[in-house]
């Protein structure tokens, strides 16, 4: 995609050799041709105005105008009266590409898509975020632009600790809060620390975030073992047999079945952890969006010395912000901080302050209230329109559609796609990739009400065929 520079346009590195005897006009032309051919200037990209480039190079404006005219005549540049000079659409030569990035054929547009885990991107809090960053840039001391503590900005840690105590009943004190770039990073840091402390295995929920768990465990050098989830949550008896003393769970809204971990299961899980000197890693990724009951508190609040609680703004604000946190037992705090130091020396200090500002101003809560109402409406539409039993709707913005026994999961996914509807099978989340029993994981975070109705109607048609 062509870059739309505002103001001066690209700062081209044009080095002129005034001693070479080669006319300066020829040198400028040669540099521009080369920049276009090797992709430093992309098709459609706007060049600096002749005045700006002339000033920059210490040449006359007339000379630059002549260069531009010459390259236009050669087909490298285009210019229309009153508009900027640009690189011609077909001029760029072999633009270097990241493998596969542009080569992939654009997929046919979908009339309805149900990816899970994505919040509504059209309603991302652009204005609030811009306001918060502007506030920080206007008011923060110069020291805010320096390196900060690797475990996070003290103000954000304090604000988050208070927020998590209030909203999630997390037993959190600022010293235990580590700011990271999301659950993904938090999980990786913790597993590496635990691996160094001698843990050779980590259990994860099945179905679950199978790929993420395996990748994170692999990168920490430990084995990932799947443990079944039933309608009450993870099977603690099977966990006890697995040989792992570390487990990753999603108790508030299991990913992806949507099961809420039952109270007796929570108790059994924590007893297992105490009896085995175990560690429970709680992924509290979407608990803010709870519909028909009061939110269940985080597991961490019941056993702060045994549970690491991971949270993120990826669902509440936007995944692109890459901000999250880990509330860590005191016994692990120093090691996790050291690991974060090695990983990236700390998360962006300005973004951390922006999040603290957003929470303190009440705008974070306001965004949650707004989005809760949006997702609640979509959830109701989905419940009405679904062509079969649907479960897992207590929280978050995904649910599970149960397919009738005669309908193959993979066939339905393929047939729906052929009709422009993106649905995703539970087999993607099962450790053995089994498509039995047939289930679809239906995300509705980034899918409007009309698209939900359309998509479900297509599925209904398929299930009748
Ligand atoms: C189970 C689960 N936890 C957490 C996350 C969020 O991860 P992150 O905070 O790294 O964006 C996701 C993203 O989809 C997820 O599926």
Automatic annotation (TrEMBL):
Gene3D superfamilies assigned: Type I PLP-dependent aspartate aminotransferase-like (Major domain), Winged helix-like DNA-binding domain superfamily/Winged helix DNA-binding domain
Family annotation (InterPro entries): Aminotransferase_I/II_large, HTH_trans_reg/aminotransferase, PyrdxlP-dep_Trfase, PyrdxlP-dep_Trfase_major, Tscrpt_reg_HTH_GntR, WH-like_DNA-bd_sf, WH_DNA-bd_sf
Protein name: PLP-dependent aminotransferase family protein
Lineage, highest ranks first: Bacteria, Bacillati, Actinomycetota, Actinomycetes, Micromonosporales
GO MF assignments: transaminase activity
CDD domains, A to Z: AAT_like, WHTH_GntR
Keywords linked to the UniProt accession: Aminotransferase, DNA-binding, Pyridoxal phosphate, Transcription, Transcription regulation, Transferase
Domain HTH gntR-type: 22-90
Any Pfam family matching the protein: Aminotran_1_2
